[in-house]
């Protein structure tokens, strides 16, 4: 089983998708332009019943990011993802040091080297881990080790992979303390799948397969059906 080869220090039969929060109490949304005030009614209505996270998706420059992040923090948002360009580490570091709300670096950190560079500059938030972004399980775990050494939090991210990519991520995440949880919901968006037995999702958790390898078997008939010639 892959998670045993990776260490499995935090092995459980189920992997919590939402960390300490229940499935129904996480609200996340994209904020792609400066309009943070429009979300205040949502935050106020949910109160302390939900953890609210916002993905700005690199939409703000440094000045707008400083203003927007302060406003989101004042509203009670718990996590702000990549508010500025992935190429503006200086602004990202400043925000992490001066904004009360945690800042999540996503596009800014793909590899362990990226993580080291950002940590060396003084970043104090959290890193979004993604296997596809890092180039594989070993690479993403190397980034996680850098973050842990620097006291930076971890979040298990998704690039909306299907079941095979998702289960590879789950094996890696099972070895880590994810302070900000994870959201491996890619397979739930599929109308059909190429695996014989789908992953089991229930109550904000997904069961980690415990059969050899990644724990999933391809449905050869489905694979042939969906194969397209280049």
UniProtKB/TrEMBL annotation:
Keywords associated with the record: Isomerase, Metal-binding
InterPro entries linked: DgoD-like (IPR034593), Enolase-like_C_sf (IPR036849), Enolase-like_N (IPR029017), Enolase_C-like (IPR029065), Mandelate_racemase_C (IPR013342)
Statement: the UniProt record of this protein carries the keyword Endoplasmic reticulum: no
SMART domains per UniProt: MR_MLE
GO MF term (any one): muconate cycloisomerase activity
UniProt feature coiled coil, ranges: none
Superkingdom of the source species: Bacteria
Signal peptide from the UniProt entry: none
Enzyme Commission number(s) from the entry: 5.5.1.1
Family statement drawn from the similarity comment of this UniProt entry: Belongs to the mandelate racemase/muconate lactonizing enzyme family.
PANTHER family: D-GALACTONATE DEHYDRATASE-RELATED, ENOLASE SUPERFAMILY MEMBER DDB_G0284701
Name of this protein: L-Ala-D/L-Glu epimerase
Species this chain originates from: Klebsiella quasipneumoniae
């Amino acid at each position: 089983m892959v998670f045993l080869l990776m260490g499995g220090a935090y092995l459980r039969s189920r992997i919590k998708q939402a960390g300490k929060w229940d499935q129904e109490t996480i609200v996340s949304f994209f904020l792609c332009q400066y309009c943070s005030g429009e979300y205040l009614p949502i935050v106020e209505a949910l109160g302390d019943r939900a953890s609210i996270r916002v993905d700005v998706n690199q939409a703000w420059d440094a000045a707008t990011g400083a203003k927007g992040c302060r406003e989101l923090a004042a509203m009670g948002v718990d996590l702000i993802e990549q508010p500025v360009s992935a190429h503006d580490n200086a602004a990202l570091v400043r925000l992490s040091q001066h904004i009360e709300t945690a800042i999540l670096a996503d596009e800014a950190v793909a590899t362990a080297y990226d993580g080291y560079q950002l940590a060396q500059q003084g970043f104090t938030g959290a890193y979004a881990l993604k296997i596809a972004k890092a180039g594989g399980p070993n690479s993403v775990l190397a980034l996680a080790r850098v973050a842990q050494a620097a006291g930076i939090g971890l979040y298990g991210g998704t690039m909306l992979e299907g079941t095979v990519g998702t289960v590879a991520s789950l094996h890696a995440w099972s070895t880590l303390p994810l302070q900000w949880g994870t959201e491996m919901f890619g397979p739930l968006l599929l109308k059909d799948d190429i695996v014989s037995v789908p992953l089991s999702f229930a109550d904000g958790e997904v069961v980690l397969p415990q059969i050899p390898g990644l724990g999933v078997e391809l449905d050869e008939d489905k694979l042939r059906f969906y194969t397209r010639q280049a």
